[in-house]
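Please review the protein record below. Let me know how this chain folds according to its tokens.
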Amino acid sequence: MRKCERCGAPIPDTLALCPDCLRLAGADAAEVSASETMRDIAAILSIEAGTEASEKQAVQAIMNIAARLERSVTNGKTE
């Protein structure tokens, strides 16, 4: 994980900006959604097992991914 070039939020190594900064920069919804998914997957993969805070972070990241997938199905499109 590294930091967003604009705001310093933690992001995956493959991104330069966090989802919020992408949105502010005018990225389209698909780009922001992909960024959010990558951020959440990276958060899950970087978790150190055995700590309660990490477990809560993992659950939140999984819930974020599930919510976005549900919205994409509800809206009749895939991401």
